[in-house]
């Protein structure tokens, strides 16, 4: 491949025209999608497509690094933070600055126009390519490493320091100081026993009554005296007002139970 | 196909990222817009490296990636810290210094 006769292959042309519109669509999704998680998914798509374009552009090392660092580490970090902050943390629609939306849109379109104009008017030299075809070419990772650790070794060291500083900085920023002593099982038990005179119950709460008609988390149990035990129904149901009244009163329960036991023997005889 | 198409694509993606930063209110999505802008410049760097037959462009793209990773770590830590104190991830609510 001579430097002047550099041609982009037909396969790469097809790849570009398939991927580029999809990338632009996904990037626009970042702008228009409501939920932050969907925006993150759009960005993941853009980054994976970008890695494919790198590999097509004779930068296989950068393509792999793009997948590992961006889609592997950075976007997972984004998703973790979304999980911490809450998935439903969507945009507020109130404008604090009046007309900000239109001004921002105008500035964005203006920026696109300026960049497009610059690219259209710039006189690029005829493309030379990196001669990535032959094994001794300059595009392979060895050549990249030679440049990286030869000409840019100082910058490499500085970047290492930067990464360590960033990691320590993130640790310091997200560190939370413990204000109260740590709660153990023992301390919780002691606190409950200490609160016993205030009406705290140590034993488990009574389970709800189970009746055949309504089965029966929402039906209160009946105590030995025949009274309803309101604590037997879940607190959530009680607050929501979904508690059902216990069907039989004390008298009905006793009569129905006795009727059941006494009446069973003659009935079975009758059947037989 | 002309190799300039890659540069045009990079410019379009950069403009979309910048518009995202300007328009969205959720701090995390704003941050994603910054990431999109960084990626677009990386694409331009790789394209220019190929155009000039010089690996320096790829090396610069590599450095941009590393710095972007460091920036993401610190930026997300700041967002988490602000969320803990203000219970909000909206950029409009961070106005304690307002006069």
From TrEMBL, chain A:
Record field: catalytic activity: a quinone + NADH + 5 H(+)(in) = a quinol + NAD(+) + 4 H(+)(out)
Keywords: Cell membrane, Membrane, NAD, Quinone, Transmembrane, Transmembrane helix
Organism domain of life: Bacteria
Family: Belongs to the complex I subunit 6 family.
Positions of transmembrane segments: 14-33, 40-56, 68-90, 102-124, 152-173
Role, per record: NDH-1 shuttles electrons from NADH, via FMN and iron-sulfur (Fe-S) centers, to quinones in the respiratory chain. Couples the redox reaction to proton translocation (for every two electrons transferred, four hydrogen ions are translocated across the cytoplasmic membrane), and thus conserves the redox energy in a proton gradient.
Organism ancestry: Bacteria, Bacillati, Actinomycetota, Actinomycetes, Micrococcales
Disordered, as annotated region: 212-272
This enzyme's EC code(s): 7.1.1.-
Keyword Methyltransferase: no
Protein name: NADH-quinone oxidoreductase subunit J
Membrane topology of this protein: Multi-pass membrane protein
Compositional bias (Low complexity): 254-264
TrEMBL record, chain B:
Top-level division of the source organism's lineage: Bacteria
Broad EC category: translocase
Gene3D superfamilies found in the cross-reference section: 1.10.287.3510
Reactions catalysed, as given in the entry: a quinone + NADH + 5 H(+)(in) = a quinol + NAD(+) + 4 H(+)(out)
EC number: 7.1.1.-
Pfam families: Oxidored_q2
Subcellular location: Cell membrane; Membrane
Transmembrane segments: 6-23, 28-48, 60-83
Keywords for the protein's UniProt record, in alphabetical order: Cell membrane, Membrane, NAD, Quinone, Translocase, Transmembrane, Transmembrane helix, Transport
Function: NDH-1 shuttles electrons from NADH, via FMN and iron-sulfur (Fe-S) centers, to quinones in the respiratory chain. The immediate electron acceptor for the enzyme in this species is believed to be a menaquinone. Couples the redox reaction to proton translocation (for every two electrons transferred, four hydrogen ions are translocated across the cytoplasmic membrane), and thus conserves the redox energy in a proton gradient.
Quaternary context: NDH-1 is composed of 14 different subunits. Subunits NuoA, H, J, K, L, M, N constitute the membrane sector of the complex.
Family: Belongs to the complex I subunit 4L family.
Name recorded for this polypeptide: NADH-quinone oxidoreductase subunit K
């Amino acid at each position: 491949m001579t430097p002047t006769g550099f041609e982009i292959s037909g396969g790469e042309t097809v790849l570009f025209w398939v991927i580029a519109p999809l990338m632009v669509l996904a990037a626009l999704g970042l702008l228009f999608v409501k939920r932050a998680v969907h925006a993150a998914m759009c960005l993941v798509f853009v980054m994976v497509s970008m890695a494919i374009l790198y590999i097509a552009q004779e930068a296989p090392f950068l393509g792999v690094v793009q997948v590992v660092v961006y889609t592997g580490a950075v976007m997972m970090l984004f998703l973790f933070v979304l999980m911490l902050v809450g998935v439903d943390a969507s945009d507020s629609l109130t404008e604090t600055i009046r007309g900000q939306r239109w001004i921002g849109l105008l500035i964005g379109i203006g920026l696109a126009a300026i960049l497009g104009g610059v690219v259209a008017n710039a006189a690029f030299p005829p493309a030379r390519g990196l001669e990535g075809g032959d094994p001794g070419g300059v595009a392979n990772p060895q050549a990249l490493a030679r440049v990286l650790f030869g000409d840019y070794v100082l910058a490499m060291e500085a970047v290492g320091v930067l990464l360590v500083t960033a990691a320590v900085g993130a640790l310091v920023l997200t560190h939370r100081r413990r204000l109260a002593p740590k709660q153990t099982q023992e301390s919780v038990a002691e606190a409950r026993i200490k609160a016993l005179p205030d009406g705290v119950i140590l034993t488990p709460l009574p389970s709800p009554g189970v009746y055949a008609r309504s089965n029966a988390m929402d039906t209160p149990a009946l105590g030995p005296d025949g009274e309803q035990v309101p604590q037997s129904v879940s607190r959530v149901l009680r607050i929501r007002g979904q508690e059902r009244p216990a069907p039989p009163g004390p008298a009905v329960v006793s009569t129905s139970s006795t009727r059941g036991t006494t009446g069973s023997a003659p009935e079975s005889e009758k059947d037989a | 196909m002309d190799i300039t198409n890659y540069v045009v694509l990079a410019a379009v993606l950069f403009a979309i990222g910048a518009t995202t930063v300007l328009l969205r209110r959720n701090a995390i999505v704003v941050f994603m817009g910054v990431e999109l802008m960084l990626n677009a410049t990386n694409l331009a760097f790789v394209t220019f490296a190929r155009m000039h037959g010089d690996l320096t462009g790829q090396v610069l793209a590599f450095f941009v990636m590393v710095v972007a990773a460091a920036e993401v770590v610190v930026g997300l830590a700041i967002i988490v810290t602000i969320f803990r104190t203000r219970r909000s991830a909206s950029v409009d609510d961070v106005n304690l210094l307002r006069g």
